[in-house]
Design brief:
The structure is a homodimer of 447-residue chains. By secondary structure, the first copy, chain A, is of the alpha/beta class. Chain A folds into 3 domains: 2-37 and 54-115 and 245-314, FAD/NAD(P)-binding domain (3-Layer(bba) Sandwich); 118-240, FAD/NAD(P)-binding domain (3-Layer(bba) Sandwich), CATH 3.50.50.60; 328-444, FAD/NAD(P)-binding domain. The first copy, chain A, has 12 helices and 25 strands. Chain A has helices spanning 10-22, 44-48, 63-69, 135-147, 160-171, 191-203, 249-253, 300-314, 344-349, 402-410, 415-419, 435-444, and strands at residues 2-6, 27-32, 73-76, 78-84, 89-94, 100-104, 107-110, 114-116, 129-131, 152-156, 175-180, 206-210, 214-219, 224-228, 232-235, 237-240, 244-246, 277-279, 286-287, 294-295, 328-332, 335-341, 354-362, 373-381, 387-394. A 5-stranded parallel beta sheet of chain A has the order 3-2-1-7-18, covered by helices on one side. Chain A has a 5-stranded parallel beta sheet with strand order 9-16-10-11-12. In chain A, strands 21-22-25-24-23 form a 5-stranded antiparallel beta sheet, with helices on both faces. In chain A, helix 1 runs parallel beside helix 8. Chain A is globular, with a radius of gyration of 23 Å. Chains A, B: Its cofactor is FAD.
């Protein structure tokens, strides 16, 4: 059997490795348009923060290892350009020499990932206007900072990649201004929690310009000028971190169904509307375990997990994925910020009758030195009593705590049920009542 | 209604406060034999570690607050000595003046806690041989260290209180030897994980004497001599940290049923065999959510939670507790050690057909600076596929991670279900596959 995979990062290489391991006689062909495979894209801000580290550190497994040790036919520099579902072929161009290629498949995996959204505005094509998604982007940013002695940067967008990059650039003593058109920082977040993140950014000398619409970028004698409706920000470098979108055009052009956020629609077995064609990773959608509806949350764990599940299905071990809870975490300077499930507004949109609480608690026990404030937002449904989501912010004890709620959401637990869980307590790590339990106890009064 | 409570710590004062808050016209009487109420016993090792901190820092709420602000009739120095279930009375002695007292109750809560096990061996009554449970014990240890300029201590027992005290004493530059009769450190732990804890103790110059039975303690010119069958250890201070047992005699003498570990048997509503009498905290048992059987795990969260539930039940809001998962965590020098659910041996004893895995993973992502090794042990049942328990050891990222498994156990999740959970990932906090997921994926191959 010939299993062809388009895209050689998280989902693609996970599927390739697992398929070859499960069923060594499967011919596994991976077509990757760049020269980079299997790297930790999420690690890039932290790599950029350190001038002395090589970008290549982020490579998890080298192409040679896949080829020689694992027996995967990995073609880098092969750009897939068309899928023919009737004749089960993928065609494209070899980047280096412009030669065409054509592969026949029995099973196909589309793992084309996503790409940064670049606004269609004047100046976003200027040198020094960069985005961060691929390893090549990382190299480009790092060498630009070095070669141009970047002192000032503007980040367009205030999502978690923007925030991680703000920290990375401040680490390197680069002045940072962040710009976004909408007025709210992290609009999905409870305002009390978002205010803590905002303060952390201001305390770290990040200039925040929320509610500013960029109209274009201009080149001037010194560098660049980011022009907004009501102000203008000078910069040596501009980072476009507005968001990403799924690379689903190849699939759509082949008549494969796309849906939410233009991501490729897949069933729980990761099959697209063509049953011989799978999709996984940032290009594909998933089911949200709280709503039961389709969602598009491009994150690394689900890409890896979906890659594995595709391999299982292709190799004859039927595997269905349950879905995502929408769990995510990021660090911004000295804060840990985490969420899972639905915010109040999302819960309303999903036709729940939600209520929420916000509590302040401590990261360590009463009278334990070093305790920090943790803020927890919990959302519950008044109709069913179900727990629907959580958000947390604090300098410690946030990142892993969120997982308890994620597991509760997978089990469709009620707030009452969650409030009875036996969570760990020792003075260096928690109050007797874990902050999550304190929040659940408060929520219980409302649901 | 008159609600009498024997014992003024976690369970007792939680019940008292909540009952008074829920139903202010309830007469709430608390009888506490010491002068201390509502303190963080778990915080004592950390308080002892710091010569400059007052033991009184550990008091969460002062007696006056309960009396004046909350309207609780709190009698300190009142030692309850007998319960008469027929006439619904509690009698005892006022410690200060030896006068008798007698209270009639409508509902009674026994929250008498536990006490350290002191071996019936020569010398355990010598000055300088101390135990740690009450706040008074804490004061005694702290003043003994100061007044006697303690330079060397022997700790009898290697449970988590012993281990926390070893760290506390080393903090104060006191040489520490630990002694226990059985050969294994933390016998409930997977040996690979226990070996890490052992190394941490040795690296911090704690002398470990496992497999040494103490035959007695002798006084010598310099201080004390802990005599074992095959060796003798000199010390300025000896700490008995062998374990605790429930203070259930008062209940047993009144004909109230006791069970596992001689703890007072309670139903899910915290009622004893006499329906007007409740028991909560370290003196009472609980249901284990994994086995469905009775268990006795004296820990602070369940004491507080049970106190609340008793108040709810007494005040006419029927509340049943689901039970405990056996979650616990402690810090030992630079290690976090956590568990929840059953070990392999416990699962066998509970008639499961268990298998286990042990994996090594990292606390942060591939190539992220500062990543540390985390070891995870997961136990699953081959018959049902259920996840049964987890243990974890590592320098970071352990304490809160265990909660995800605890929630899974409350939901009787399978290993397969758990392996699909959407746990948080960001490079500073986790590999893409959280260590728990890596362990679950391995366990799946066995269950």
């Amino acid at each position: 059997m010939r299993f062809v995979i388009i895209g050689g990062d998280a989902a693609g290489m996970s599927a390739a490795s697992r398929a070859k391991r499960m069923q060594p006689d499967t011919e596994v062909i991976v077509l990757e348009k760049t020269e980079d495979v299997s790297y930790s894209a999420c690690g890039m801000p932290y790599n950029i923060a350190d001038a002395d580290r090589e970008v290549e550190d982020l490579v998890v497994r080298k192409a040679e290892v896949f080829r020689q040790k694992q027996g995967i036919d990995l073609f880098t520099g092969y750009r897939a350009e068309a899928i023919d579902p009737v004749n089960r072929t993928v065609t494209g161009t070899i980047v280096d020499n412009g030669e065409p290629f054509r592969f026949v498949y029995d099973r196909l995996l589309i793992a084309t990932g996503g790409r940064p959204i670049i606004p269609d505005l004047p100046g976003f094509d200027l040198p020094g206007v960069l985005a961060l998604k691929s390893l090549e982007d990382g190299r480009r940013i790092k060498s630009f900072i070095r070669n141009q002695s970047v002192k000032k940067a503007v980040i367009a967008g205030m999502g978690y990649i923007g925030l991680e990059m703000a920290e990375a650039l401040r680490e390197r003593n680069i002045a940072v201004d962040m710009v976004k058109p909408r007025p709210d920082l992290l609009p999905w977040m409870h305002r009390d929690l978002a205010a803590i993140v905002e303060k952390e950014l201001i305390d770290n000398q990040v200039g925040l310009h929320a509610g500013c619409t960029i109209t274009g970028i201009e080149k001037n004698a010194d560098g660049l000028n980011v022009v907004c409706e009501d102000r203008s920000l000078s910069a040596d470098m501009v980072l476009a971190a507005i968001g990403i979108r799924p690379n689903s055009e190849l699939a759509a052009d082949a008549g494969i169904e796309t849906g939410i956020n233009d991501a490729i629609s897949v069933n729980r077995h990761l099959q697209t509307s063509d049953e011989a064609i799978y999709a996984a990773g940032d290009c594909a959608d998933a089911v949200h375990v709280v709503t039961g509806e389709k969602t598009w949350i491009p994150l690394a764990l689900r890409a890896n997990r979906a890659g594995w599940a595709v391999a299982d299905n292709v190799c004859g071990r039927p595997t269905a994925l349950e879905g995502v809870a929408g769990t995510s975490v990021f660090k911004v300077f000295n804060l840990e910020v985490a969420r899972t499930g639905l915010s109040l507004a999302e819960a309303r949109r999903a036709d729940f009758e939600p209520v929420e609480v916000v509590i302040k608690s401590r990261s360590r026990a009463h009278a334990h030195p070093g305790a920090q404030t943790i803020r927890v937002n919990l959302v519950g449904d008044t109709r069913s009593g179900r727990l629907l989501g959580a958000q947390m912010v604090g300098p410690e004890g946030v990142a892993h705590r969120i997982n308890a709620v994620a597991v509760a959401l997978h089990n469709r637990m009620t707030a009452a049920g969650f409030s009875q869980t036996d969570l760990a307590y020792a003075p260096p790590f928690s109050p007797v009542w874990d902050p999550l339990l304190t929040a659940a106890n408060q929520l219980l009064k409302k649901v």
